[in-house]
UniProtKB/TrEMBL annotation, chain A:
This is Imidazolonepropionase-like amidohydrolase. It holds the Pfam family Amidohydro_1. Residues 1-25 form the signal peptide. The keyword Signal applies. It comes from Pleionea mediterranea. Transmembrane segments: none annotated. PANTHER family: ALPHA-D-RIBOSE 1-METHYLPHOSPHONATE 5-TRIPHOSPHATE DIPHOSPHATASE. GO terms for molecular function: hydrolase activity, acting on carbon-nitrogen (but not peptide) bonds. InterPro entries: Amidohydro-rel (IPR006680), Metal-dep_hydrolase_composite (IPR011059), Metal_Hydrolase (IPR032466), Metallo-dep_Hydrolase (IPR051781). Keywords: Hydrolase, Signal. Residues 353-414 form the Amidohydrolase-related domain.
Automatic annotation (TrEMBL), chain B:
Residues 337-433, 872-956 form the Amidohydrolase-related domain. It comes from Pleionea mediterranea. SUPFAM superfamilies: Composite domain of metallo-dependent hydrolases (SSF51338), Metallo-dependent hydrolases (SSF51556). Coiled coil: none annotated. Keywords: Hydrolase. PANTHER family: ALPHA-D-RIBOSE 1-METHYLPHOSPHONATE 5-TRIPHOSPHATE DIPHOSPHATASE. Residues 990-999 have a biased composition (Low complexity). InterPro entries: Amidohydro-rel (IPR006680), Metal-dep_hydrolase_composite (IPR011059), Metal_Hydrolase (IPR032466), Metallo-dep_Hydrolase (IPR051781). It comes from the Bacteria. Residues 987-1012 are annotated as: Disordered. This is Imidazolonepropionase-like amidohydrolase. One of its GO terms (molecular function) is hydrolase activity, acting on carbon-nitrogen (but not peptide) bonds. PROSITE patterns: PROKAR_LIPOPROTEIN.
Length: 433, 1056
């Protein structure tokens, strides 16, 4: 095997960059497009699409994976990364996050994730995405290269977009807009928790009312769609205009729902309206196996560390639900709804393994499955020739705190500065005494 | 205060009784003086003179509102009006010992969004806190309320102990007759019990805003009352230079030990919380039950108190479909099945109780529900006692009411049979005055009468029910039915075709019962009158239905009762075992480090030996732990699980008097879930709403025990302080801008000021002690102040400070205060900028308990870093990671592991961050926190490396008892699912053992009361939320304004 030990190690240059930015106390600077190919050698490749390959090389050219194999020849000028003993993964993808939409939870001025009103399909999350958020570098340094940013709130919240985590601004970071329309499904069932003050009867009435409102809204949208399709000059309503791709099935509706009854009514609603949906949350997925399976609904499970939803349920019910899905042949993506805590995504996947998910499915749930749900599986989500070189190299198993140690992260072959606010402050105060 | 003394009053009552139905004593008489007789003799009655004791065919004579005599057989006095009560039962009038009759309940004046109110409204000699109304003597406000009385009387109640139900000390109640008339004549006991609760009711004052705040207020107030007795009228210029204020509320409370208290704790767990408050003052407290007493009956029994029970049983939970069932917990189903047996369980355990209307939305179901209770095992005797003798004692009128004995009030309930079976209330006498609901049914005509027509001897057999008379005329073997035309009590007209008896034609009879003879005439077919004199040969038979018979359809249960009574509750405390754990990787968190292939011996709840290749002593169980890891039990420095009704007393900047230990909630499922994550001990902290918060409570997670049993007895006292955004109310909304402090400057100052006050206070006691005996007699002693006492405990290093803190500046300030007052901050909790001042902390001697990686949720945590742990540790600070949540307390092991990947901590140090380090912070490291010989056997068996994400807890042990076992948990789930299915079948009526038949309308009934279900909070099972530091809201105001909950939803979204 050919070794170009004389060539500068990418690692070393990354370290240098780290040092300089710490000294300048500056923002991390987005990575530069490399001039030369990059070859990772003798590593364990977690390809997702074709298993785990020990002692393999991976060649990156023009931001894409150019070759995977053993004993690949390094092209001239290539930067070689010695991957011996290292674990190489495709970049992790975080679904339905608010990364970049909120900086400090309690400070209203920094919150841009929920527009006022119960139906705001017209708003697009990427518009508010702050590429300079201090949170972003803390997430990508754990191996997450992409996040879907999505509006929150109640009702019909707006449109999500896929961003990469190393942009100069939102336009630069935007990978795909309109990845989905987000809807918080109306409550179902009787809430008996401490803070619910309505009577069961009133709750039932309110639940029914909310469902009726939702279907009324859709009737209105459909009528608009029909009018617009018939007459291109019809006046534009920005709200309903935004919903037309949903009706055309070119944009999925992400239905955030946890309770079985929500899941059940959402699936039937989708059938009736003839739209594509993705279920998000899905705490009761294990109670709705047949429904989900027979209707082929994509699932984004968000409660890796969830509490049991009901007091009688086993304490590990949420932990085990992904395994139940896997056992029943339902593919799912795993996500963490949130912002700063999205960096826990690899550990969330690891947690599902502790409770029965196979390591390959766990890996897939944070890489290829999210890519599929976002409609970008042809570009990312696995280590495959032709796909973007979104690469994570860890010294050990990425999914366990004991071994997780990320050396290198690349987005389309660009090496990412793994420094962040936390490391900077750590370095600063390491020097205090 | 000019009330009649108790004994004087009794005499007055006796005299008054004689005058009751006449004019009252003090008014002028207008018009003609009423001298009509009011002597009544009830004859042939079954008289229940007391529970379990009756006289049949008795004559009961009343006169002037009193019972004159009760005798078997007996004769009506010549001058008495006679009422024939054949077939009727007479009971003593029922007494409701907890009522707001004539006064009403609190009307909440509070509206969400109002600014806080820190000062009480003072007037007269009232108390400082608006929730205290102890100065009110409700007798002064009393007058009859005919409309409300009707609801009571229809169920047989004749008197109530009543007050306005509002606030914490609600004032002194009065026991009154439910009759109508001059108040002066209706008052049975002007010195009845005080009423109280933990609920501040209509008070708009912010303090107290939590259960523990209410408890603290009661503790202080009772102490103040005792002090006031000693201090009033004395000079105290020697001590404080201020005169003792006039305080009527404190004065009035001094009589508590004499008159007792009716206390509504709003939950059986809170009854146990109330009892220790009143005990030191020897107050006899009766508690209002919540219907769940059976779930912790031994604890309830230990209170040695009387309970007041509203017969209000839960409606069937909705399990009609898969969907509906999702919202119904096993706990609800169990309670549905068992609640009707609660009165029976109280009775079996010899816990006296009285029935009450209190809490019933629909009093029309009262008797229906009582019968449900009987069906579930309550005896008639106990039921009657609960309506008469027991409440009579509670209301202080047992000499005058509750039984049917000469001299007692003529308060009677007359029923047409056994009330606990089919009998219905017909009439109620209040102070000898009749209140008629339905005319008495005497079945006066029933019997057999002999007469003849011509030479034919005939027998008229009459049966009589309430609605009709039926009968037949019999001759030999033949009989014909009579056709009734009209009848009243003692006369009837009927006809009969006698042809079948050999007497041709239809005869018409007009008769009247005179002296046991049916007298009148018969009209022959030829319209001739034949005289009729038919003596009654066989008298009516008394329906002998007062004997107690065992209901053969008595309820059978399919549910378990566990501790706590919910899914995953235990039937018994886990046994203490002597065990030998073999071949484990043992993380000792001690000098022995990590022992590969190690052994550990557990004996009598303690760690006996830790090492290698130990031999198994006789009688030890062996656990082969090959491939497994063992650590000390995980300890959480900062938790808010297992806390009832509010985690913050955020109504004041300093609330050192409140105690989390007063409100430990042993029913919280988070305890069990935390055990499953390996946690064995936790410090339950007050929230972070104020600079000096409440006292903390360290617990061991002994799932299944009661609140007291949870407490880590050896743990020294600790207290929560808080700094920064929360205490300066940064995120509380625009209304909260007036409380001092609003800045970090103010936080520092108010804490300093508090300690100065504490020193001053302590000095005042020393000054008093220095006075001569005679001077002490003349001088008002200083008033005990629980808040300042607590602060002095801190100054004396008997109580240790755990301070919520984030930024470097405030950390330094607090350490400076402590140093100036010569004590040390024990632990800074959260301490996300600890890494910036780690060296200073180490020098001060403070330890740190932090989040593994939380940040960015508010401004003061924007500089938080996950390497905080390592940097502090490097500087010699004792560091732990904590949960502050019901989620992270289940996985503190992997929280600790984050320091391995974020800052390269050694695995052994990471484990110490959740074992021995927090043990030191809680000052329990002598007992737990490491696997060291002689420490408590608190440990965890893990499936693998405890720091790995892939590892699970297999067993969790506390004191050598196995509190969690993953395999047993799996089995338990199967059993619970079976139990739940059985209960669901029972609800659906598919199970034969379902004895809960149908009610009169053909509807399924288990004493269901759909009208009361949704609206009666106290009978619903509501889960306490998982509290957070910032969950600062007014629990009591919340409870009162339950209908506009949406507007304050944000109050629950706390973080840290």
């Amino acid at each position: 095997m050919m070794r170009c030990l004389t060539l500068t190690k990418l690692i070393a240059s990354t370290a240098a960059l780290t040092l300089s930015s710490a000294l300048l106390a500056n923002d991390m600077i987005p990575g530069k497009k490399p001039d030369a190919p990059i070859l990772i050698t003798d590593a364990t490749l977690y390809t997702v699409s074709s298993g785990v390959k020990q002692d393999h090389d991976l060649l990156i050219k023009d931001g894409k994976i150019a070759a995977i194999g053993q004993d690949l020849t390094a092209p001239t000028n290539a930067t070689v990364i010695n991957g011996e003993g290292k674990h190489v993964y495709p970049g992790l993808i975080g679904l339905t996050t608010t990364v970049g939409l909120v900086e400090i939870g309690a400070v209203r001025a920094t919150r841009d994730m929920a527009e006022t009103g119960r139906a705001t399909p017209e708003v697009k999350a990427h518009i508010a995405f702050n590429a300079d958020s201090e949170i972003i570098p803390t997430i990508r340094s754990n191996g997450i290269t992409h996040v879907e940013v999505a509006p929150t709130g109640s009702g019909l919240n707006g449109q999500s977009s896929l961003m990469h985590l190393d942009g100069w601004n939102w336009q630069d970071a935007l990978v795909k807009k309109g990845t989905g329309m987000h809807l918080r499904w109306p409550r179902a069932g009787i809430n008996k928790s401490f803070w619910e003050t309505r009577t069961p009867k009133k709750q039932k009435e309110d639940n029914a009312k909310a469902l009726k409102q939702l279907s009324d809204t859709f009737e209105q949208i459909k009528a608009y769609h029909k009018a617009r399709s018939a007459n291109a000059n019809a006046a534009i309503d920005v709200r309903w205009e935004a919903m037309r791709p949903v009706l055309d099935k070119t944009m999925p509706l992400f239905v955030h729902a946890n309770d079985y009854r929500q899941i059940e009514s959402a699936i039937h609603f989708a059938k009736q309206q003839d739209i594509k949906i993705v279920l998000v949350g899905v705490g009761d997925a294990d109670k709705a196996i047949e429904l989900i399976k027979s209707n082929n609904i994509p699932v984004v499970f968000t409660s890796a560390w969830g509490h049991p939803m009901r007091s009688d349920e086993g304490l590990d019910r949420a932990y085990k639900t992904p395994a139940v899905l896997e056992q029943n042949g339902i593919s799912y993506a795993l996500a963490i709804n949130g912002n700063w805590n999205v960096r826990d995504l690899p550990f969330a996947a690891g947690q599902t393994v502790a409770y029965g998910v196979s390591p390959s499915t766990a890996l897939k749930s944070v890489t290829l499955e999210p890519a599929k749900i976002l409609g970008v599986a042809d570009k990312m989500g696995s280590l495959e020739v032709g796909k973007q070189a979104n690469i994570v190299i860890s010294q050990g198993d990425l999914f366990d705190h004991l071994t997780h140690k990320v050396d290198t992260v690349m987005i389309e072959g660009r090496s990412i500065d793994l420094n962040n606010r936390h490391k900077q402050l750590y370095d600063k105060y390491s020097k205090k005494n | 205060m000019n009330k009649i003394s108790h004994s004087a009053f009794a005499a007055t009552l006796a005299v008054m009784g004689c005058q009751t139905v006449l004019a009252d004593q003090t008014s002028h008489v207008y018009g003609i003086t009423d001298r009509s007789s009011n002597k009544v003799a009830f004859t042939h009655a079954t008289v229940m003179i007391e529970p379990g004791k009756s006289i049949k065919d008795a004559t009961l004579v009343i006169d002037n509102g009193r019972i004159m005599s009760v005798k078997r057989g007996g004769k009506a006095p010549a001058d008495a009006k006679t009422v024939d009560l054949s077939n009727h039962v007479v009971y003593a009038g029922f007494i409701d010992p907890f009522s707001h009759y004539a006064f009403g309940k609190n009307e909440s004046a509070f509206k969400w969004g109002e600014p806080p109110k820190y000062q009480g409204d003072r007037k007269g000699g009232n108390a400082w806190n608006d929730a205290i109304h102890a100065e009110v003597d409700w007798v002064d406000e009393f007058k009859a309320d005919k409309k409300s009385a009707k609801n009571y009387i229809k169920n047989g109640f004749t008197s109530v102990q009543t007050a306005k139900i509002d606030g914490i000390f609600q004032g002194q109640s009065v026991t009154v007759s439910l009759g109508d008339g001059l108040p002066n004549e209706l008052i049975y006991n002007a010195n009845a019990r005080h009423f109280g609760s933990f609920n501040k009711g209509s008070s708009k004052q912010s303090y107290p805003s939590s259960l523990m705040g209410s408890i603290a207020l009661i503790r202080q107030t009772l102490s103040d009352s005792a002090w006031y007795q000693n201090a009033k009228g004395k000079t105290d210029h020697l001590i404080t230079g201020e005169p003792v204020e006039y305080n009527d509320a404190l004065e009035n409370l001094n009589e508590l030990s004499r008159v007792g208290m009716m206390f509504d704790p709003e939950g059986h767990l809170s009854a146990m919380r109330a009892d220790p408050l009143f005990d030191p003052y020897r107050v006899d407290v009766a508690y209002i039950a919540d219907g769940h007493e059976y779930t912790r009956i031994n604890d309830i029994k230990a209170l040695n108190a009387t309970f007041v029970v509203a017969p209000n049983f839960p409606k069937k939970p909705d399990v009609s479909s898969f969907e509906a069932q999702l919202d119904t917990s096993l706990a609800e189903l169990r309670h549905w099945e068992r609640a009707p047996a609660n009165p029976a369980v109280l009775a079996e355990n010899k816990i006296p109780f009285a029935f009450s209307h209190y809490g019933l939305k629909n009093t029309g179901d009262f008797w229906k529900q009582i019968k449900v209770a009987l069906k579930h095992g309550l005896s008639e005797k106990d039921a009657l006692a609960a309506l008469t003798t027991t409440p009579a004692k509670l209301a202080g009128i047992d000499k005058d009411a509750g039984q049917l004995k000469p001299g007692m009030m003529a308060d009677l309930v007359i029923a047409d049979g056994n009330l606990f079976k089919d009998g219905k209330i017909k009439q109620v006498y209040l102070q000898g005055k009749k209140h008629e609901m339905k005319p008495l049914f005497t079945s006066a005509l029933a019997g057999e009468y002999g007469f003849n027509i011509g030479n034919d001897l005939l027998t008229l057999k009459l049966q009589q029910t309430e609605k009709k008379v039926t009968g037949e005329i019999v001759k030999g073997d033949e009989n014909v039915k009579i056709k009734l035309h009209d009848h009243s009590d003692n006369q009837m007209q009927f006809s009969a075709n006698l042809s079948k008896l050999g007497i041709e034609g239809v005869y018409r009879f007009s008769t009247r019962l005179i002296n046991e003879t049916l007298t009148g005439f018969a009209l022959t077919p030829a319209a001739e009158k034949i005289a009729l004199n038919a003596p009654r040969m066989v008298p009516q038979s008394n329906n002998d239905n007062d004997a107690e018979t065992k209901d053969d359809t008595a309820a059978e249960f399919v549910s378990q009762v566990t501790l706590p009574n919910r899914a995953f509750g235990l039937t018994a405390e886990p046994e203490q075992q002597n065990i030998h754990i073999k071949n484990a990787t043992i993380w000792t968190s001690d000098k022995q480090g990590v022992i590969e292939n190690g052994d550990m011996l557990i004996r009598n709840g303690k760690i006996d030996k830790v090492g290698k290749n130990l031999s198994t002593p006789g009688g030890y169980d062996v656990i082969d732990a090959t491939g497994k890891h063992v650590t000390a039990g995980i300890i959480d420095e900062h938790s808010h699980i297992a806390i009832s009704k509010g985690v913050n007393e955020g109504s004041d900047a300093i609330t050192a008097e409140v105690r989390i230990g007063d409100v430990v909630n042993p029913n919280d499922i988070n305890i069990y879930r935390a055990l499953a994550g390996g946690t064995t001990s936790a410090q339950l902290l007050h929230g972070s709403a104020n600079p000096i918060g409440g006292q903390a409570q360290v617990i061991k997670l002994r799932w299944g025990s009661d609140a007291e049993g949870m407490k880590f007895k050896q743990a020294p006292g600790s207290i929560k302080f808080a700094l920064g955004e929360n205490v300066k109310q940064s995120n509380w909304g625009d209304k909260f801008t007036i409380r001092y402090p609003q800045t970090r400057m103010g936080v520092e100052t108010i804490v300093r000021d508090a300690f100065l006050r504490a020193q001053e206070y302590k000095a005042s006691f020393e000054k008093f002690d220095d006075l001569s005996g005679s001077m002490q007699d003349r001088t008002a002693p200083p008033r005990k102040n629980f808040r300042l006492d607590t602060l002095n405990e801190i100054l004396e290093s008997k109580r240790f400070v755990h301070s919520h803190s984030y930024v470097a500046s405030e950390i330094l300030s607090l350490m400076k205060i402590a140093e100036d007052f010569d004590f040390r901050i024990q632990t800074f909790t959260h301490i996300l900028e600890g890494y910036k001042v780690a060296e200073e902390m180490a020098k001060h001697g403070a330890s740190a308990s932090t989040f593994a990686d939380w940040w960015a949720y508010k401004f003061e945590v924007y500089d938080a870093i996950p390497g905080n742990t390592c940097l502090m540790m490097k500087n010699g600070v004792n560091v732990s990671v904590n949960s502050d949540s019901g989620d992270l307390i289940r996985r503190l092991n992997t929280e600790a592991a984050k320091s391995i990947n974020y800052c390269g901590m050694k695995p052994e140090d990471a484990i110490k961050m959740v074992t021995i380090n927090p043990a030191k912070q809680l000052k329990v490291d002598r007992y737990t926190g490491s696997l060291t010989e002689d420490k408590h056997a608190d440990f965890v068996i893990w499936s693998g490396n405890p720091l790995s994400i892939y590892t699970k807890v297999e067993q969790t042990w506390i004191d050598g008892r196995k509190y969690f076992d993953r395999a047993a948990d799996a089995n338990m789930r199967v059993a619970l699912a079976e139990e739940k299915n059985k209960l669901i079948q029972k609800v659906l009526g598919g199970d034969k053992s379902s004895s809960n038949g149908k009610d009169s309308n053909g509807k399924e009934s288990n004493g269901d009361n759909s009208k009361t279900f949704a609206s009666n909070e106290r009978y619903l099972l509501k889960e306490e939320p998982a509290w957070h530091c910032e969950d600062n809201f007014d629990f009591w105001h919340w409870q009162q304004t339950r209908q506009d909950a949406h507007s304050h939803g944000q109050h629950y979204q706390g973080a840290h």
